[in-house]
Amino acid sequence: MKAAVLTQLHAFPVVQAWPDPVPAESEVVVRLSHAALNRRDYWITRGLYPGIRLPVVLGSDGVGVVEKTGSAVADPWHNGRVLINPGLFWGDDPRVQSRRFEVLGLPRDGTFAERVVAPAENIYPAPAHLSDEEAAALPLAGVTAYRALFTRGELQPHDRVLITGIGGGVATMVLQLALPSGAEIWVTSSSEEKIARAVEMGARGGFLYTEKGWYKQALKHTGGFSLIIDSGGGRSLADAVEAADFAGRIVIFGGTQGPVEGLLPARIFWKQLDLRGSTMGSPADFEAMLAWVTQHRIRPVVDSVFSLDEVEKAFDRIAGKAHMGKIVLSIS
Amino acid sequence: MKAAVLTQLHAFPVVQAWPDPVPAESEVVVRLSHAALNRRDYWITRGLYPGIRLPVVLGSDGVGVVEKTGSAVADPWHNGRVLINPGLFWGDDPRVQSRRFEVLGLPRDGTFAERVVAPAENIYPAPAHLSDEEAAALPLAGVTAYRALFTRGELQPHDRVLITGIGGGVATMVLQLALPSGAEIWVTSSSEEKIARAVEMGARGGFLYTEKGWYKQALKHTGGFSLIIDSGGGRSLADAVEAADFAGRIVIFGGTQGPVEGLLPARIFWKQLDLRGSTMGSPADFEAMLAWVTQHRIRPVVDSVFSLDEVEKAFDRIAGKAHMGKIVLSIS
Questions:
Q1: What are phi and psi of B45, to 5 degrees?
Q2: In angstroms, rounded to a whole number, what is the distance separating the alpha carbons of residues A8 and A286?
Q3: Digit-coded pLDDT (tens) for B199-240
Q4: Nearest residue to A115 via CA among A64, A79, A60, A74
Q5: Cβ(B23)–Cβ(B85) under 8 Å?
Q6: How many CB atoms lie under 10 A from the CB of residue A266?
Q7: A168 part of contact set with chain B, CB < 8 Å
Q8: Alpha-helical regions (H) of chain A
Q9: How many CB atoms neighbour CB B305 within 10 A?
């Protein structure tokens, strides 16, 4: 088959011939129509991820049709369109993944290929209201956003929510998942355009985090946020702590700006804040995400679509950070 | 009356004559036999506290007898020994103090005096098993430790607990409150002597946080902590995050080492950690603390006792950080 293979670090994957995957007894092979990029894929190409092995087929998100099943797998998918929960071997504890947990697309070969093998328990029917591109864009961002917002963030309709760094795939998905709850949503970005886009989508307003002390303005306008979803780390987390209302919750699902800077413990304890780490999601989170997306007819924002042969352009786009929403690969 | 009055910053309080306090209608005057120092008192003398006004009588902790009551106060204390909940005007929300909240001893005059005035609702009978010195040592450290450990930390008997910076009044009280739960308790300190003392008291063991990478040893010995109570901030919080087990809770009640340093967001989200700020406690926390202390016959560790006239020596002792437990003032 054809696959986009990462053979060396500090380079992008290259399309080449690759062995067809063979399912073990509890696995299936999915023939993919579309895949989607995540920032994780980019970090891996930069060597900034634990446990990198080369060569590897990257890619955590994919949609397609089950083509082959292992001997122990009943096939309930009836040749229908499926997507893959990219969190493998979560385990039994809803609070935290097991030590066996891994994300599809490293160390196992992922979805930037014509076919991928995955455990049968990770295969779900794709929501019918989504196009193939949208379905491919959903799994990793959807489950990460859902867990951050609902399971860890405990979103309530009366919350005033801030999503920092709108534009990335997960942050945009957080916005989309939060809107139907009726909560009041605000965003931050370094880009006026992305804020304007978020407001079009339904956000109440936004703040340029590049303006020093933006949180003072935010506090003045809003009175502070009861729930903040942050993936910035760096200076972003300290700013989030300033922008939080008393007894607020801050969910941390990323750290694109690196180590936390300028965070004052007194702000955390005096305001009685909760800071909660969240990554990926359990099978229950994934199923609840699919149900919420289906119920509210949520359609992931697709930034752009490239063919598998254009995989380098897709990586250029995610590296540039100008995108809003998901970058999709069309495979067949 | 006689009081230890702070008249200027970067100096210690000076004993002088001071007007006798007069109770408003819902207040009482307590004639104090003993008071106790808290690190807060020291921070205030260094100018490191918001809203300082001078001159002021410092002191949040005291034990004594109700001598005078406001017109709206029924006196249920029958001339018995009382102590004061130093958290005034918490309000109705158990999650967080109201904007009116203040701590006795700034801006209101506190307990380093022969008499103090306080709201009647903050007066409680002192547990009978405590000496006057121990009773004076209990309130602020007790309620802060109780809320951090139980209300915010949700201590369970199966927890493996780490208390960082053992020796301070609150950290020592956290150890004492935690021991009867049956949980396994570990400590950190910069002093072998303090670790040895904590082990005598019932801790399983300890680690010198001055040794770089101590948390690796801790992880190897224990497998990681499900609950960490930290008041260090600075490098201490990042180390705590390393030492935490997956799905662990870290309660932050102080930041003696200043702004957080070297904290990696990825550690927080990958381990699905909870970081929870906690300060002081609600009236319900205070009452539950008194009940727990009474039930388990817990006696606060008294480091040393000075007379009110020796107040400068008492401040020297808290400034030096060699103490283990509470520094008490004997007043009458």
A1: -60, -25
A2: 32
A3: 999 999 999 999 999 999 999 999 999 999 999 999 999 999
A4: A64
A5: no
A6: 18
A7: no
A8: 39-45, 132-137, 139-146, 169-178, 192-201, 214-222, 234-243, 265-270, 283-295, 311-320
A9: 18
Do B227 and B249 meet the contact criterion of CB atoms below 8 Å apart?
yes
The span from the CA of B176 to the CA of B203, in Å, is 9
Q: How many of the other CB atoms lie within 10 Å of CB of B34?
A: 25
- Euclidean distance between CA atoms B4 and B273, whole angstroms: 44
Q: Do A274 and B279 touch (CB under 8 A)?
A: no
Task: Say how far residue B117 (Cα) sits from the centre of its chain.
Answer: 21
Contact B260 A255 (CB under 8 A): no
CB atoms within 10 A of CB B321: 14
Calpha distance B61→B328 (Å, rounded): 9
Q: Return d(Cα A262, Cα A248) in angstroms, integer.
A: 19
Residue A231 — φ and ψ, nearest 5°? Answer: -130, 15
Is 3.40.190.10 the CATH classification of the domain at B143-277? no
Contact B265 A247 (CB under 8 A): no
Nearest-by-CA chain A residue for B265: A255
pTM over 0.90: yes
**Angle in degrees, CA B49, B53, B57, rounded to 5:** 95
Rounded to 10 degrees, the C-alpha dihedral B200/B201/B203/B209 comes to -80
Domain ranges for chain A: 2-138+300-330, 143-277
A276 and B274 within 8 Å at the Cβ level: the answer is yes
Q: Which two tokens stand for residue A60?
A: 């955590």
Helix segments in A60-165, DSSP class H: 132-137, 139-146
Residues of B in contact with A260 (CB under 8 A): 260, 263-265
Out of A95, A252, A259, whose CB is closest to B247?
A95
ipTM computed for the complex: 0.95
| Lookup result for tokens 């606060």 | B300
**pLDDT per residue over A187-200, tens digit each?**
999 999 999 999 99
> What does the pLDDT look like over A74-128, one tens digit per residue?
988 988 999 999 999 999 999 999 999 999 999 999 999 999 999 999 999 999 9
Query: What is the distance of C-alpha B216 from the center of its chain?
Result: 29
Contacts of B179 (CB under 8 A, 6+ apart): B185, B201, B202
Q: Where are the beta strands (DSSP E) in B233-325?
A: 244-252, 274-277, 302-307
Q: Does A312 touch chain B (CB under 8 A)?
A: no
The answer, for B89 touching chain A at a CB cutoff of 8 Å, is no
Grouping H, G, I as helix, E, B as strand and the rest as coil, residue B132 is helix
Domain A2-138+300-330 has CATH 3.20.20.70: no
Q: Give the C-alpha separation, B50 to B257, whole Å.
A: 18
CA distance B47 to B286: 28
Order of strands, edge to edge, in the sheet holding B184-189?
A: A205-208, A184-189, A160-163, A225-230, A244-252, A274-277, B274-277, B244-252, B225-230, B160-163, B184-189, B205-208
The SS3 call for residue A100 is: coil
